[in-house]
Design brief:
It contains 15 helices and 13 strands. The protein is an alpha/beta fold. The strands form two sheets. Strands 5, 6, 7, 8, 9, 10, 11, 12 and 13 form a nine-stranded mixed beta sheet that branches. It is elongated.
Length: 419
């Protein structure tokens, strides 16, 4: 038995460890499915879940936590069958009758009538318990929706919010129509996705990409610059004056990679190692500059010290940068939470999701960004510059949900793309 809080990973109970808290039973497992299997092994169907949630446990000072699943439940007493109830009541009464020397025919008739009443009462109680048990069972449509969300790797907390909303907002008759339920849930997912709006900005427009190492910030900067050039060309406008700066001195090839992209697009690239370097470059070109891209080094999301130093380099009066947090589509939900927390000091305006082509399930990213209230601006896939980048849209995410029956026409009408 376990009780109380756990201060680090080594103190966490193993999967399927059960502990009691003031008479209420609780089960902590690695996943919800582990909990369900263990409860069935222990009690069959004679239990009732009263509360469940994903929990973060372990770690040191809140770091390196792992996600577990906690289930609160009560064990239902097995109801006595009407036959057993009848026999037990009859035996008890006959015992008392014998002890009291009740022998008259009238008394025996009264006794039989009383036993008949007790039998009916126990039968009615059994029917009530059976009915109550069926009410607490999960509706098949909710169960199926949860399985679809799990297959798309949505977080436990996101799935729970959808399930609770279905119970609260839809009647039993509405839940019976799974097609309508599925369409409703897809709309809810769409409404939970925030897209960063395109708004006019004051020139020069300074764009900074931050994020962990290996997410593709340098390539994404080149793609964004290429988008601007191609867009101006399509609109028959003059080529925008663009400049790129790298402050990434952690990778030997960082400057070379950005210069290679710059040469292809005829964009000058500068290297800065300090705040004064960035300020000097900005002040030199800002009068004629349209867009200044700044490429930053990647650090572990737990390296708050170096992330803070990087922010100090960009803390320049008059710079007014627009910060994009860059993450991969395949990032784990727990890791994304940590990334957002540690890069929050930059106050990023939106998120760029890179390496879209390296996964087929995007629920992890959508769950966390929804819960953290973060908007998505761009999606990238592949290495081609300036191609393989696009503005993020709700329909793009919804149309890529696995095994959901998607009404494309409805989605495009409900979530039109920004022009």
């Amino acid at each position: 038995m376990y009780s109380g809080e756990f201060n680090n990973v080594s103190q966490l109970p193993p999967a399927r460890a059960v502990y009691s808290d003031n008479g209420a039973k609780t089960l902590i497992c690695k996943t919800r499915e582990d909990c369900k299997k263990e409860l069935y092994r222990l009690y069959g169907n004679d239990y009732e879940v009263t509360w469940q949630r994903p929990i973060m446990k372990g770690g040191i000072l809140g770091l390196f936590q792992r996600e577990y699943f906690e289930v609160h439940y009560v064990v239902r007493p097995k109801p006595m069958s009407p036959k057993d109830s009848f026999q037990q009541s009859r035996d008890e009464i006959l015992k008392k009758t014998t002890e009291g020397s009740i022998t008259s025919t009238m008394q025996i008739a009264a006794l039989d009538k009383k036993i008949e009443g007790l039998t009916k009462m126990m039968t009615d109680k059994l029917d009530f318990l059976t009915s109550a048990s069926s009410v607490t069972e999960k509706h098949p449509s909710i169960q199926k929706i949860e399985e679809l969300l799990q297959k798309n790797e949505f977080s436990f907390s996101y799935i729970n919010s959808i399930s609770n909303r279905l119970r609260a907002e839809l009647a039993i008759e509405e839940l019976d129509d799974f097609d309508a339920v599925e369409r409703t849930v897809v709309d809810w997912i769409g409404n939970s996705i925030k897209i960063y709006p395109q708004t006019p900005v004051k020139l020069p427009h300074v764009i900074v990409l931050v994020g962990p190492t290996g997410v593709g910030k340098t390539t994404t900067i080149a793609k964004l610059a290429g988008m601007l050039i191609l867009d101006a060309k399509e609109k028959k406008q003059p080529k925008p004056f663009i400049r790129m700066i790298t402050i990434d001195h952690t990778r030997v090839a960082a400057e070379a990679q950005l210069k290679t992209f710059g040469d292809l697009m005829q964009i000058d690239v500068d290297k800065a190692e300090s705040s004064s370097d960035v300020k000097k470059i900005f002040d030199t070109y800002k009068e004629n500059l349209d867009v200044l891209f700044i490429d930053t080094p990647g650090y572990s999301p737990n390296d708050s010290e170096n992330i803070g130093k990087m922010k100090a380099i960009l803390d320049i009066p008059g710079l007014h940068p627009e910060i994009y947090l860059t993450v991969t589509a395949s990032v784990k939900a727990m890791d994304l939470v940590s990334i957002i927390q540690n890069y929050e000091q930059f106050a990023p305006s939106s998120v760029i999701v890179t390496k879209w082509d390296e996964t087929r399930a995007y629920g992890n990213v959508l769950s966390v960004l929804s819960e953290k209230g973060k908007a998505i601006s761009y999606i990238t896939d592949g290495q081609k510059v300036p191609k393989e980048i696009e503005r993020a849209t709700v329909s793009r995410f919804l149309l890529n949900l696995n095994d959901f029956n998607i009404d494309r026409m409805h989605i495009e009408d409900a979530f039109p793309e920004e022009k």
